[in-house]
Amino acid sequence: MFEVDPSLLSAESLARAAVILAVGILLLVSSLISIIVLLYNKTLHNCIGYYLISLSTADLLCALIIIPLSFYSAIAQQNRDFLHDDSLICRCTAYLQIVLLSSTIYIFAWIGVDRYAAFMKPSRYESEHTLTRCKCWIAFSWITAILIACPILIAKMEVNYYRDFELCILNWSSTMAYSVTLAVLVLLPSICTILFTSTSIITALQKTEELEDSQRAALELDQNFVVTLFVVICFTLSWSPIVILQFLPSDLIDPTDTETIRFIFMWLAIGGSSSKLLIYMFINPEFRRTFFAPCTGEVVNDDDDEEFGPRSRGLFATLCCCYCQKLCCCCCLHPSDHPMASPARSEYTVTTQNVAINSNRVFIGTLLVTLGLVSIFRAQDNTEMASQIGGRIASIFSVVYVTVPSIEVGKKIAHEVVKSRLAACVNIVPGVTSIYEWKGKLEEDNELLLIIKTKSDQLENLKSSIVKIHPYEVPEFISLPIETGSDPYLKWIENQVGEKKNEVNE
């Protein structure tokens, strides 16, 4: 089921898979680093720190579960039956998407409440917003998100696989009642909370003379105000393009580019969540100090307590240091083993350094092999890529087959659809014998075949026009995409169909 035929890989599928893989790696690395650093340093154990851990956990689940399936679907174009519409895996993927998105939106609402309390009531902030209460809110958000998405699995709502996004997504139009419920229970309260808290803070900042000293101190000393502001802004900016695109008229964008644009905007939105790491890195000095501690040799938590125990550099930190030693010019030693402190290295340090060096060689070798395979695939697909690009450009045109009982009906339909610019040309082919069963009786009729050339976006209008004129109770109307054709002829069809353009002779 999960086999991939290299001969079926195209340049487009490889490009899509590369984008998805890059987003997945970015989310995985950024979320892991954020969670590890935030948990490691006790100074960062505040409400905002735990909220960011929750957001990073959502990113981690997305990188580990959703993105691998999208990556496989991108490269296995001919063998992805397990991801068809309403399949179990597709339904579970849509369920997880709703859970992660709902929990993320709820956490943003709690962040707004936290920042409102920290600014408007700084004297009572520590007593009202305790870590225990913060953890309860996070747990409540996740439990609510898990339960509110259950109808997708229990009621077996319609879930479709969208090739544009390489994702399984809930069919919102067919589940309107559930969509409205989600909007009322998730989006509406969260957006209202964020707007109210942010508006209150901005309004208070405009009256600087009325600010208390404690409020000024909170703004100057608490970097979390800036961190949360940029996190919310980045989330909004990353999701805005795909949301706006869904409400734009379809005729504003070339149909040949719509699929690619939707794919890019969707994965830009998904990958935008990784910006939290950079935001915290540049704004919060404590986070930055903890992140670089493995290379600087600095002991972040220098106190030994029952909860965390003695602070020392572990294998993970040592490996990180070994990988980046050429950049930061540090060596893989515990501070007590540094050459300035002791002339001899411990056996533990040498062993971990050798592990890191060997791992680095394996990584580089794997990377080179992967690049070689990609080069081979690209070399094999050069001709196929050119034909696919041409085919996709030409797929905006279609040919339609319609049978008619007489030459008079055929000419009437042909004149009407050409005159109304629903078709560029109609060929009337006589001498067609049709054998079929109708109302339990075998029929044999002499008919004529209309071969109609048009644009794919006019098929519905063309069908409606023909059905109104056609004398049959059930007229034949079959359309096929034009995969390729001469450029001048296709250009002529484009000019003849739809709104009037500069005409080109056939």
List the helices and strands and how they pair.
Blueprint: H1 11-40, H2 47-75, H3 88-120, H4 122-128, H5 131-148, H6 151-154, E1 159-162, E2 167-170, H7 176-205, H8 213-221, H9 224-247, H10 255-271, H11 275-283, H12 285-291, H13 293-296, H14 315-323, H15 325-328, H16 347-380, H17 382-394, E3 397-404, H18 407-419, E4 425-438, E5 441-455, H19 459-469, E6 478-481, H20 487-496
Antiparallel strand pairs: 1-2, 3-5, 3-6, 4-5
Protein name: G-protein coupled receptors family 1 profile domain-containing protein
GO molecular function: G protein-coupled receptor activity; peptide binding
Subcellular location: Cell membrane
What can you see in these coordinates?
- A four-stranded antiparallel beta sheet has the order 4-5-3-6. A two-stranded antiparallel ribbon has the order 1-2.
- The two termini are 49 Å apart.
- The chain folds into three domains: 6-291, Rhopdopsin 7-helix transmembrane proteins, CATH 1.20.1070.10; 298-394, no CATH class; 395-496, Alpha-Beta Plaits (2-Layer Sandwich), CATH 3.30.70.120.
- Residues 302-319, 322-353, 373-394 and 502-506 have low confidence and may be disordered.
- With 506 residues, it is of the alpha+beta class.
- Helices cover 62% and strands 10% of the residues.
